[in-house]
Design goal:
7 helices, single chain, about 20% strand
Length: about 240
Amino acid sequence: MANTRRVVNKEEKWFAWCGDGDDLRRIAYVAQRGVEQRQSTAQDASRTYLDARLFDGNEEIIGEPDAVLDELDLRSVARVEFVGQFPYNSKDELTIQFGAKFAYDGSIQLKVASSDSTWARSTFGQLADDIGKGVPWWAPLREKGHILGVWIVLCELFALAALLVLYPHISPDARSSIYVSLATLASVVALGLFMSGSLSDWLFPPLEITRPGGQSSGGRRRAVIGSVLISVAVGVFVNLIS
């Protein structure tokens, strides 16, 4: 009877994450504990450990999680990774990426694989739960189709507000054509904003590491835009009924 080996692969992706350095340390601790569980059964325990990798501009820092996270610069950090190191012939894998290269494919990625299905499922579940605590409600909006829809809605709302402001000054025969023109222009602007990518990241950051107890800068920006939209809507309504 031929020998067989089964490998369990567990993977999940999220489109955004927001937390502070303590949150990253907590996730690193859970990952470290998982690696140590495998270390106790590994044939070569000296080659089983957890690496942290910090990508900061053109600089890459690799080492023990606590030491690497001490180097964290909130102003310039681009990516943080935790990678389990296992013996060469092992089928084990543990990888966590915060700020993956292709953000629209999921900027936060978790992968756990092992021939020990119990370890793989348990470690994956604990890490997924901890990472999920920092995933904002709007994270699915960062999917390609969804973020384009968001820009279209925002631009169409501004176009509608502009039409309502101009409404009393436009002849009835020209209103429909002007609205079509404004709506078309808004769609083109929305497509341009989507293609630029940087404004999407500005409004919906794929990765945001804050100071302990700090507020998300993306949240502040969305609050400002929301306030502007509400103010415009109230102003237009008052203008129409006065």
